[in-house]
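Hi team,

As requested, here is the filled-out complex form for the alpha-L-arabinofuranose run. I kept the field names the same as last time so the parser does not choke. Let me know if anything looks off before we queue the next batch.

— J.
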Amino acid sequence: MKRRNVLVAMAAAPLGAMLPLTSFAQKPIVLGFAQVGAESEWRTANTESIKSSAKEAGIDLKFSDAQQKQENQIKAIRSYIAQKVDVIAFSPVVETGWETVLVEAKNAKIPVVLTDRAISSKDETLYVTFIGSDFTEEGRKAGRWLVEKEKGNAGPINIVELQGTVGSAPAIDRKKGFEEIIKADPKFKIIRSQTGDFTRAKGKEVMEAFLKAEGKKINVLYAHNDDMAIGAIQAIEEAGMKPGKDIIIISVDGVKGAFEAMMAGKLNVSVECSPLLGPQLMSVVKDIKAGKSVPKRIVTQESIFPMEVAAKEFPNRKY
Ligand code: AHR
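And here is what came back:
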């Protein structure tokens, strides 16, 4: 058929007959994301970052919330494998126990991206890349801040620690990094350490127990996230003490709630951990689909905010 005749035939054809011509339009990339839960202000910001960046990037996002349970995350990953999504991404609630499901993804030839939290596995072929913070360094920053603050104080300095979710990478690494620094001086003593599961409610409950057991002996609280610190602040106030003064408070994340607490003089310092991982994730997903190579580890750049800079920094905070 000559070109002019083709155009005439197309103009006369019913819409259905023309559909094959449009089938060349690119299908959007389908990304299955298995989120940890909604345990903290940080997590809410992380979810929002992933959802809005997917929309902006034109990626079809399938999203699930595991409510802090590993079995729910495994179920979600299996359902993404069954749906034959293009890429799976997840933030592992705990470090271990992922091999079986990740081998299933590998056998189905679906690339996996870890975001925020790492897994502990010898087999690095189970995922393409890990995008997120250096949690050990965050713990070290918290420790260094305390060492500097207490320079010249002979001690003892009694510390209570609110750990994150048991077995999670941030809880393990933030503890390790902090201890690595404070162990250089025996005046620092961790007298109590327990999980608060990264939530305000649990942070408050565990701090109440610490106060009951140790009372005025407590000099410092190290909380693995801001939410637990904010819960603990309430417990300290209810016990008739002044958070930020009677007890020095150090936490991690740098969420707006922590800045508000710092501006009120109730929290001494927050080590930044950025939840805004969405744009990086979407760009990595596109690179993977385009067959480009991506680095095995993408580390988020972060800072530390003592209460003295909180008011100046607050207007710049995005989460
Ligand atoms: O994995 C990141 C941690 O998880 C954040 O520090 C905490 O707030 C969240 O729940």
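Two things worth flagging: Confidence is low (pLDDT under 50) at residues 1-17. The two ends are 61 Å apart (CA to CA).

Thanks,
J.
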